[in-house]
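Subject: Sanity check before I submit

Could someone independently write out the structure tokens for this chain? I want to compare against mine line by line before I put it in a report. The sequence has 121 residues.
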Amino acid sequence: MSISKENIIDAISNMSITDISELISMLEKKFNVVTSAINNNIVNNAEASEEQTEFSIFLDKIGTNKISVIKVVRSITGLGLKEAKDLVESAPVLIKESLSKIDVNSIKQDLEKVGASVTIK
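---
Independent answer below. Compare away.
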């Protein structure tokens, strides 16, 4: 007579936490495995497969060409001249968020081209 997986789960569900912990230790010794290492590998693989899809770009420093930075920020954000100027002068500041990787890299290149320094998060 073989025992089904469901029978094993039913038996384990009636055990105390201490008994379950001892059972896990016994299984690790019997099959020469470490379940915590297996769980860590599963978690690490899941985290590695989750790639960031949305990015934010921050203006860290204006650089020497403030007017050009303001022009680029205006084109990125659609702000008016005064609002873009105020935004640039309040650096470090968030310029735009929820961007794709392609968009954020394009904006980064535009801002760095005019002498600003930026951070992507």
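---
OP: Matches mine. For the report I'm noting this point. The chain has two domains: 5-49, 55-120.
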